[in-house]
Amino acid sequence: MSNPAHTYESFFVPAIFTPSSRVLIEAAAPRPGERVLDLACGTGVVARTIAPLVGAGGKVTGVDISPDMLAVARTLVPEGLTIDFKQGNAVELDAPDRSVDLVTCQHGLQFFPDRVAGTRHMRRVLADGGRAVVLCWQDVATQSLYHPMFEAEARHLGVEANKLTIPFSLGEPGELRRVLLAGGFASVDVRPYTITARFASADQFVRLSMLAGSAVLPELAGKVDSLVDAVQRDCADDIARYRVGDRIEMEMSGLIAVARA
Predict the structure, then answer these.
(1) How many domains, in total, are found in the chain?
(2) Which helix (H) or strand (E) holds 35?
(3) Which residues, 6+ apart, have CB-to-CB distance to 108 below 8 Å?
(4) pTM
(5) What is the CATH number of the domain that holds 128?
(6) In which domain, by residue range, is 206 found?
(7) Phi and psi (nearest 5°) for 171?
(8) Which residues, including other chains, have CB under 8 Å from residue 200's CB and lie 6 or more apart?
(9) 164-222: pLDDT as tens digits
(10) Which helix (H) or strand (E) holds 189?
């Protein structure tokens, strides 16, 4: 079976995380010379995009709990850029107080076992006047094709659907705002956003989504091959609805929060 972290980078990043990172970076507005911490950096798309914006006078550090994700991230740093990728736990963050100007977290906070502990660390490491920009998906029921696909996966795995829908578990604006304020931020602005996700292979959409998803969902790890045909059959009508030629195209909705220290 292919490496889930490589599939995450090749399948999810171009379709989902590159367009959503544009939303994040527009709101974050990184400036030359700034120090940036990208939490739950995954394979590094946000860090790679921000690094040239802060320039040689700035510093970008990416932290993720997954060594496999970080191994992929380190191979993708463009020539001439320096990004420090470190393995670490966002709820037990080993970083000095007031050491960065900007914290980014793209679709990671919802996975933290203690979200408030994570936002406290975000606030702790920010210098006075710093800001954190956090993206989370809205509820799975709003997510086009992924809603029926997760339901099918849960049915065939024999688990509760909420075991698989963690990526969509922090989709209520009031709760996202509460978690950030509880972390000690002075002000938090939350607004919705929408991207058009374009996946390169309609025929392989279910398999590649499940394989890439297994990088962050342990319930899927090692079970993709045994499940994919059944899930594909269950979702055939839904796949056809979002098929555009050889691709899958669908809107995905999220929340963006800008929290100020």
Answers:
(1) 1
(2) strand 35-39
(3) 39, 40, 41, 42, 90
(4) 0.94
(5) 3.40.50.150
(6) 4-260
(7) -100, 10
(8) 11, 14, 15, 246, 247
(9) 999 999 999 999 999 999 999 999 999 999 999 999 989 999 999 999 889 888 889 88
(10) strand 187-199
